[in-house]
């Protein structure tokens, strides 16, 4: 697996971890403020993941 694949995998895993944390918080009846923070973090990580994926595709020339 090349280095760029690892970067994409880490970015996608980070999004998944924050998503799961948000779902767990919601199902346990956690604070709404924490849910909002996790949602904002997830959106930011998704944006970063898309940028990374697009950069890797551009770099590979596909």
TrEMBL record:
A Pfam family annotated for this UniProt entry: HIG_1_N
InterPro entries the UniProt entry points to: Hypoxia_induced_domain
Residue ranges of domain HIG1 in the record: 1-62
Keyword annotations from UniProtKB, A to Z: Membrane, Transmembrane, Transmembrane helix
Membrane-spanning segments: 6-24, 45-61
Protein name as it appears in the record: HIG1 domain-containing protein
Organism name: Chelatococcus reniformis
């Amino acid at each position: 697996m090349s280095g760029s694949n690892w970067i994409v995998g880490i970015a996608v895993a980070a999004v998944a971890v924050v998503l799961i944390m948000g779902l767990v918080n919601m199902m346990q009846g956690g604070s709404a403020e924490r849910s909002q923070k996790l949602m904002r973090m997830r959106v930011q990580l998704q944006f970063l993941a898309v940028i990374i994926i697009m950069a890797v595709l551009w770099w590979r020339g596909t």
